[in-house]
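Form 12-C: Joint structure prediction
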Amino acid sequence: MKNYHGGHIAIRLALGGCANRPFFRIVAAYNKRARDSKYFEQVGCYDPLPNSHNEKLVGLNIERIKHWIGCGAHVTKPVEKLLGLSGFFPLHPMTITNAERLRKRRALKAITASEEETPGD
Amino acid sequence: MDELVQRLLSKMTGLDLQKVFRPIKQELKPPTYKLMTEKQLAEATRKAIEEAKELLKMPPVLSEREPIDDVLAEDRILEGTETVKYVFTDITYSTPHRERFIIVREPSGVLRKATWEERDWMIQVYFPREGRKLVPPPIFKDENLTTVFREDRHEDVLNLCIAQFEPDSANYIRVHHQTYEDIDKHAKYDHLRSTRHFGGMVWYLVNRKKTDGLLIDMIQRNLMDDATCLINLYHILHPDCQSAKEAKEQEAHGVDLIKVFMKTEAKKVGYIELALQAYQEALASSAAL
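Section 2 - Result
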């Protein structure tokens, strides 16, 4: 076992899959390791492309996630967002912020579109 | 009471070793021959009977499950960010499938528990079971079921159904009921006689009081014990009917029990009388011989 100075365990997404077909594994690994290299344990999976029923599948091994967080693992932002969406964590503030920003942008676009229409008529 | 019911049902199912151990589709092997003494042969037949009893264990009969409709959280802020549902499944190996958390986050921001069909599908994706497909095969549609029944392959359909669906899902119950109705319509009771589906069929028929065809079939095959078992079961399930009270008063057994039942409850009285007469004539002629 390699000993890292000042490293910590992280629960993060490891990318796999083929060209134009990503697939993430949710993995407990040392922070300093490469993204796809040796990990302690695979704790779930996330498929970013929707399937035939228009769903994105996420599998989470809740018991082992609890164990690793109990051992002091840090959780990266994408995994935090996923866990917030699932209900296991409270909703991540960035998800809410992004949602509000998107709404404001769409509202602005709708207003500018209607303003362009009325002078044009 | 359940023990008694189970015993009656298993007695009616019969133990035809030849049919139970009929060659299933397996890899081809040259047959092996063993030389045994009489004692060893008796041992082997005993073990075969025990194995047959294991194979003939009836699958559970449950009432239809109620649809799940539980909303865990409503976050209307997220409406419009996603175009896709997110399905989160709990993959802990040690939780039973019934208690797994399978949660869906809709694009409208509502966090709800998954419906039964979504649950079955997810559990099959992450924990695949032998004999189950992700999408139920088209054999379970109504048009295809009629074709299968015409070819007399009821027990194959029922075996596939048991492998594919949960015992309390709507599809399982629908397919089973349709199979039993079809068998009752065409009096093909013998197809299921030594399989594990016989008990379920008898339970269904007795609950709906459609036992006449089965009775006639049993009398025609000279299975008097099975006929009395059937009527006993009927009395246990419907203790308020006329034939049950009369049978208790007269304490009838065997052929008399059948006659009592026939007079009070049966709809096809003529057929049952004819069959009984034929059976008694056959008995008389064989006794005379």
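Section 3 - Comments
The two ends of chain B are 42 Å apart (CA to CA). The CA atoms of residues 19 and 194 of chain B lie 7 Å apart.
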